[in-house]
Amino acid sequence: MKKTVFYCLLIGGLLMSYVPVHAQLRSLPSVVTDSFKVRYPSATQVSWSDKLGFWQASFYMGPDALTAKFKNTGEWQSGMKRIAQISLPAEVQDGFSKSLYADGEWQVSTVDVLYLPGNVTQYAIQIEKSSFQKKNLLFNSNGRLIKENAAL
User: Fold this and answer.
1) Measured between alpha carbons, how far is 61 from 36 in angstroms, rounded to an integer?
2) What pLDDT score was predicted for residue 3?
3) E strand or H helix that includes residue 100
4) Are β-strands 107-116 and 120-128 bridged in parallel, bridged antiparallel, or unpaired?
5) Quick check: helix, strand or coil at residue 73?
6) Contact between 92 and 85 (Cβ < 8 Å)
7) Residue 21: CB partners within 8 Å, gap ≥ 6?
8) Counting beta carbons within 10 angstroms of the beta carbon of residue 131, is it exposed (0 to 12), middle (13 to 18) or buried (19 or more)?
9) CA neighbor of 61 nearest in space, from 31, 76, 41
10) Which residues of the chain, if any, have pLDDT below 50?
11) Are 68 and 39 in contact (CB under 8 A)?
């Protein structure tokens, strides 16, 4: 019985360690880098991460730090840029101020602009009441709250 448990744990451990090693050995397809260069021609300090299913680029465009996600086929999935709360468009600031979370108990911790296919822009605002009470709020460009969920 002890040998069976030992071998099961050994095989399970080997399988679990194989997945991360395999993911790190995968090479970045040139179609992804070509697509990136077309979409972000003035990007600097580009670094790539393999996220199992997509590639993520972290880079700068002028003073702004951005990230972008691409499928293995080179198809752009999304882009993201962190901004200051004061940089939110007036419509989104108004939408947030009318939400349940603008009561003063919740504090804004981060604000991200999300760029999505179809020329869609959304705004992700992470708020917190305490170190245990955090939420992610997603607003469309008209300032409408379209999604909220608990953050970890």
Assistant:
1) 13
2) 52
3) none
4) antiparallel
5) coil
6) no
7) none
8) exposed
9) 41
10) 5-10, 14-24
11) yes
The number of helices, as runs of H, and strands, as runs of E, in the chain is: 3, 8
3-class DSSP assignment, residue 99 = coil
pLDDT in tens, 16-56: 444 444 444 579 999 999 999 999 999 999 999 999 889 99
Distance of CA 109 to the CA centre of its chain: 16
Residue whose entry in the numeric block shows the structure tokens 């993201």? 80
Residue with tokens 């077309």: 38
Closest to 131 measured CA to CA, from 112, 149, 111, 107:
107
Please report the pLDDT score of residue 137 as a whole number: 97
Residue-level pLDDT at 145: 96
**What is the rounded distance in angstroms from the CA atom of residue 2 to the CA atom of residue 44?**
56
Total length of the chain: 152
Structure tokens that stand for 143 in this block: 């300032």
- How many CB atoms lie under 10 A from the CB of residue 76? 18
Give the Cα separation of 68 and 60 in Å (integer): 11
Residue 90: both structure tokens together: 């007036």
Token pair of 148, please? 């909220």
Single-letter code of the amino acid located at 61? M
